[in-house]
Amino acid sequence: MPILFLLFVVLPLVEIYVLIQVGQVIGALPTIGLCVLTAILGGALLRQQGFQTLRRAQDNLARGQVPAHEMIEGIALAVGGALLLTPGFVTDTIGFLCLIPFTRRWLVRAALRRMQVSYGPPGGGYGGPCGGAPHDTIEGEFERRDRR
């Protein structure tokens, strides 16, 4: 509950306050222009970093490794992109932190320290309606019936 309160009540109020303060110093139109400029720069950075992260994930998959780090980076990139599209300087700052490789990797490492990464079906089997163990063979017969 406290995180939702921060996201939906405190953060917008802080954004409004900062926008008003910046607008009083540089004017309304330059403030709006700066918000648009950060969105455009953020979009370009998001695209470039997204393609690099995707390439690293594909390289890991080709080597038979789980791209857990790249998957978390992808989430950080998506969050950063969404924050950059949100008007305001506070969300832009947080969004750029998610897009800049050095700070994003630091955030991802901090997140991975708090997570357990596993892959494959739960329990090690291939699950499904039969709930079989790995490499079970299911035998059966079929008959092809063409409609004419």
Give a written overview of the molecule.
The chain is mostly helical. It has one domain (11-116). The chain contains five helices and no strands. Helix 2 runs antiparallel to helix 3. The model has no long low-confidence stretch (mean pLDDT 85).
Would you summarize the structure shown here?
The chain has 148 residues and is an all-alpha fold. It has helices spanning 2-26, 28-62, 68-85, 89-99, 101-113.
Task: State the main characteristics.
148 residues, elongated
Residue share in β-strands:
under 5%
- The beta-strand count equals 0
The rounded Rg comes to 23 Å
Terminal CA distance reads: 62 Å
Give the count of helical stretches.
5
Look at the structure and give the mean pLDDT.
Answer: 85
Largest sheet: none
Count up the domains: 1
Looking at the structure, what is the overall shape? elongated
Topology record:
Blueprint: H1 2-26, H2 28-62, H3 68-85, H4 89-99, H5 101-113
